[in-house]
Amino acid sequence: MHDGSGRIVVQGLTKQFGPVAAVQNLSFTVEPGSVTGFLGPNGAGKTTTLRMLLGLVTPTAGHGLINGRPFHQLGNPARVVGAVLEAQGFHPRRSARNHLRVYASAIGVPDQRADQVLALVGLGQAADRKAGGFSLGMKQRLALATALLGDPQVLVLDEPANGLDPEGIAWLRSFLQSFARSGRTVLISSHLLAEVEQTVDQVVIISRGQTMYYGPLANLRDSQQSRVLVQPSDTGALVAALQADGVTALEQLPDGRIAVTGVESKQVADTALKAGVSIYGIQEEKADLEQLFFRLTNGQYTASGPNQYAGPQQPQGSGYYAPPQGYQQPGYQTPPQGYQQPVPPGYQQPPPGYQQPPNPYQQQNPYQQGQGQGGLGGGA
């Protein structure tokens, strides 16, 4: 019998596929009441780790436990763990409702639970539509509904925001946070920190199957080195005053401002006041978290050839934090000069006063504090 804690424990997890080490000695813990992001580049070993945790791949060494037990020892696992590894397991001619009823029967929950979870993920009005006609974002919602059928204690989701539009991502963020705040456990994988940084409480960052960082997201933010951009009335006087105070990380920017690294804006302002230097503008700037993520995972799959579409280098001292050496922007590449965005045939500009119709898939989240938890008891 499992301990009912909702805790995920990965200890020394390793998987070797012939000569390829997909995962190497991973260890981390996911606590209930929080959303944990499992981050790394494509091919870093995230999905392999999740498959080992869910009993679909046998580890070479180590173990992954949920509620103190391996997945296959959980009894009725669907009442403990809801998992989505890919949003494609649907019969194209089966309606969303009937798809869920098949799974409901398999795990021993009532048929009406299908309609409950469809409303929960915002697909109530699409219940009778065939899954084969769903967009990728709707398939993601249907896959999540399937994972929620057993009203699980733990959610394990692989790239859950893939295919969602901005509104869908905002909805998913709110849903996962409220699900976790109800005392449950959420582990989500992604290859982009920017995609999940507003959702997660702690992160596990891996590259080449190895842990690069594990801890609260707040600690990762605190590890960034900020700088203060200041526009003084007398640049030389302010530089001299800062140096006299022991501040040496100074940079003159092309627009006349000074970049001061490693100090807070209050200290710069106080030094300027003592030196009798007027301040016309001051702001504190931090490196983007996504760039820090790239530094931790840099080099796993870096393109070796030159980028023919790359524009001129951003000048140093412009307020821009340059990515680490060797970093290549994933996915989208800058189009060549003169490129025109194609306009679909027959496209017409919306008439004046046109308003976007309301989204029929936006639904209230019952996992918000003070509301019900989906009609079934917690995982047993």
Q: What does this protein structure show overall?
A:
With 380 residues, the chain is an alpha/beta fold. The protein has 2 domains: 8-221, 3-Layer(aba) Sandwich (Rossmann fold), CATH 3.40.50; 224-285, 2-Layer Sandwich (Alpha-Beta Plaits), CATH 3.30.70. Helices cover 26% and strands 21% of the residues. It is built from 10 helices and 13 strands. The strands form 3 sheets. It has a 6-stranded mixed beta sheet, with helices on both faces. A 4-stranded antiparallel beta sheet has the order 11-12-10-13. The longest helix is centred in the middle third of the chain and has 16 residues, at 166-181. The radius of gyration is 25 Å and the shape is elongated.
Question: What's this entry about, in short?
Answer:
By secondary structure, the chain is α/β, with parallel strands linked by helices.
Q: Which descriptors would you attach to this protein?
A:
Rossmann fold, 380 residues, 6-stranded mixed sheet, Alpha-Beta Plaits, alpha/beta, single chain, disordered C terminus, 4-stranded antiparallel sheet, elongated, 2 domains
Order of strands across the main sheet: 5-6-7-3-8-9
- Helix/strand-derived category reads alpha/beta
Order of helices and strands: EEEHEEHHHEHEHEEHEHEEHEH
Largest sheet: 6 strands, mixed
Radius of gyration, in angstroms, nearest whole number: 25 Å
Distance between the termini: 9 Å
Unreliable parts: 314-335, 369-380
**Strand-residue fraction?**
15-25%
Q: Could you name the CATH class of the largest domain? A: Alpha Beta
Kindly report the CATH topology of the largest domain: Rossmann fold
Using the alpha-carbon principal axes, give the shape: elongated
Give the number of domains.
2
Can you give the helix content as a percent range? 25-40%
- Average pLDDT, to the nearest integer? 81
Q: Please report the number of helical segments.
A: 10
CATH superfamily grouping of the largest domain: P-loop containing nucleotide triphosphate hydrolases
DSSP strand count: 13
In the CATH classification, which architecture of the largest domain applies? 3-Layer(aba) Sandwich
